Amino acid sequence: MNQQPSHARSLSDITNQIADYNPRSLSVAQASDIIRQFVTHQHTTDLVPILEALGRHLAEDVISPINVPAYDNSAMDGFAFAYPQQLNVPTDQFQIIGTVLAGHMFSGDVKPGQCVRIMTGAMIPAGCDTVVPQELTEKVDEHAVRIPLTTLRRGANRRHAGEDLCAGKVALPQGKILRPADIGLLASLGISQVQVRRRLRVACFSTGDELRRLDEQLDIGCIYDSNNYTLQAMLTRLGCEVINMGIIKDDPVTLEASFREACASADLIITSGGVSVGVADYTKQVMASLGDVAFWSIDMRPGKPMACGKIVAGDKSAFLFGLPGNPVAVMVTFYFFVQPAIRQLMGELQTQPVMTPAISKETIKKRAGRTEFQRGIATLNQNGELEVVITGSQGSGMLRSMAEANCIIVLPHEQQDVHAGEKVMITLFEGLV
Ligand code: AMP
Ligand code: MG
User: Fold this and answer.
1) CATH number for 17
2) Which of 62, 149, 267, 314 is least enclosed, having the fewest CB within 10 Å?
3) Residue 43, pLDDT score
4) What is the whole-number distance in angstroms between the Cα of residue 197 and the centre of ligand 2?
5) Domain identity same for 238 and 291
6) Are residues 382 and 327 in the same domain?
7) pLDDT tens digits, 319-367
8) In a 10 Å sphere around its CB, with 0-12 CB exposed, 13-18 middle and 19+ buried, how is residue 107 labelled?
9) CA distances (Å), 394 to each of 183, 215, 223, 300, in order?
10) Residues whose CB is under 5 A from ligand 2 (ion)?
11) 411 Cα to the center of ligand 1, angstroms
């Protein structure tokens, strides 16, 4: 736990290499790049039954122990036969000499002019190379069918041994998140348990004297701590083990104790609030005193202030993201900085959110010199193209607009106003399970 590979680099090692590094005006691309270079990955693994591996990261390549399918078999219900060497007639009459069902074998000899009734998945009888689907044949009587040879090619409807997976080849690569298809594929190989990476332990807490728990009275000037819930929900979806530490008051002694406690058990600590320029609280001071932490003002909206680094307490260390307090800023910085870091920690190769082009249906105001993340609603138009509109007011505290959205529109650093009909890049919230 908490061990780091030897190539772990300090933040200053990385930022010293960036000629125009300016923590008070960092582009989204620069911040992403620093995070990518800084984050290592955790190596501890768990051996789990395949169903428990759903949504987990594979820790090692899975090598196929067998061919799938293991034998040549039929892709159709029909008749298996040997395709004639010479075609004299377009349709030929074949004698039916038996039936083979899935899970059984036909042991007889199939001679030219003969065929075997075969079911999907059944082994192709020796001597046969082609299957004609039942519906293409014409029944002569109980013992013979006519097969339209010219409309079939030799080898049709025959699944070859190993065509899905070959014995000895990588069936699933390490780092892959296991989805239902992967679980089925493991089962098809007869593999009942796999090594997956241990779930990432992520401690999170909210800072701010104005915050109240849901079971507390909402005093004047106070708000409910919603960040704690969005963060826990996003972390749960990413398959992390969440260590929820609730709300930590703006008091240096309590804050330091909380960071130390988080560091003792977590791989990663996420806080929200207290990292803005000019906030009169202790969060930044305490973070800085405990490790290698940079405070950035990122050229983005929403977002902007963010702390990133690694905290050390005793012989334990944990990566740290101090996110801004605004609820939408929390989600955006999580999606675009923390999520890639978590994916990298878990050994995934594709860590950045997947972007898709969409046509903007309206003008979107945009200032050059910062990346803007706008909440959008994407729909398919009659031509099958994705179109997108923004969800209206984009205030960084407005969670409602985040809840209405089904995507985020990412407007790059240099982009100016987007005109109706122009293409923008979006990242959709939902995919398949
Ligand atoms: P800060 O970054 O601490 O200056 O907070 C910026 C804004 O986000 C303020 O309006 C805070 O009240 C709000 N905020 C901070 N933390 C939370 C939280 N955990 N839940 C909801 N809103 C928050
Ligand atoms: Mg605050």
Assistant:
1) 3.40.980.10
2) 314
3) 84
4) 35
5) yes
6) no
7) 999 999 999 999 999 999 999 999 999 988 889 999 999 999 999 999 9
8) exposed
9) 41, 29, 20, 13
10) 208, 273-274, 325
11) 25
CATH label of the domain that carries residue 190: 3.90.105.10
Q: Are residues 216 and 339 in the same domain?
A: yes
177 in a structural domain: yes
Do 312 and 216 lie in one domain? The reply is: yes
Q: What are the pLDDT digits (tens) for 104-160?
A: 999 999 999 999 999 999 999 999 999 999 999 999 999 999 999 988 999 999 999
Query: Does 425 sit in the ligand 1 pocket, CB within 6 Å?
Result: no
Question: Is the beta carbon of 206 within 6 A of some atom in ligand 1?
Answer: yes
With respect to residue 295, please indicate whether it lies within any of the assigned structural domains. yes
Query: Which pLDDT tens digit goes with each residue over 223-239?
Result: 999 999 999 999 999 99
Torsion of CA 237, 243, 246, 248, to 10 degrees: -130
398 token code pair = 């407005």
211 is in which domain, residue-wise? 11-44+199-345
Q: Decide which of 312, 345, 378 is a domain's last residue.
A: 345
Distance in angstroms (rounded) separating the CA atoms of residues 219 and 210: 9
The predicted model scores a pTM of 0.88
